[in-house]
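[Automated response] Your request has been received and processed.

Submitted sequence:
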Amino acid sequence: MNGATPPLGPEVRQTDSALYRIGGMVMRYIFLLQGSWPRVLDLWYWPTLQMVMWGFITSFLHQNSSFFAHAFGVLLGAVMLWDVMFRGQMGFALSFFEEIWSRNLGHLLVSPLRPREFIYALLSMSVLRTVFGIFPATLLAIWFFGFNVYALGLMLAAFFINLIMSGWSMGLLVSGLVLRYGMGAESLAWALIFGLAPLCAVYYPVAILPQWVQWISWGLPPSYVFEGMRAVMIDREIRADLLVSALGLNAVYLSAASWWFLDCLKSARRNGKLLQVGE
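Generated structure:
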């Protein structure tokens, strides 16, 4: 009364507290990056190295192949977009592994931080690490080779969203495996995603694969993204149907991977593995 502001409801207070907890976790990971130049260097090193290597390969093919002379930048664009998925997965997994390596996971989960908020913080760090790692490489591609990936416009944003969602699904899957089976599964963070690369039609169309492999490839969201990228860069055609298919599959896989991670987390909690998972 008398113009006083009514007290906030419990739902508003809970949402506000959740945002503070998620923000606190994101700041923790940012401080870890700020305090370690090798971590920062690692964000830049691989995207830049791949961009330079594939840029020179593309330049050679541009000079010696009529196809690539017609569609300069297809390989370089594919490398950059693939790195979005790779960085998205590693950004999630490495932030999660930081908690295991520092034996902090058990402490986090006895705090007010909820498991879903923990996931949101890891997803946020995945985006930040991906953007921070890839942005310098995109500028060097313009400087060295005259290839501007930003010329894709809104399609670049659509490709980025779909690929980073695929990376999140892989990150949740691998992190769940580590919770379930211990740090022996840590190497899968690198192995699984590179094992998918031949099936995702990164550097060639799906049609070049054997017929039975094509069915597997069309079950993976990145295949639709890279087919859509080639349609834009070679045929100057926007394939909205491919993007919608990728988004639908990503929603299914991301939901399943989130359930898997939360189930593994619950199992580790129930079996008392949270403090031993790093051993």
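Summary generated for your ticket: The mean pLDDT is 84. The chain has one domain: 12-270.
If you did not submit this request, please reply to this message.
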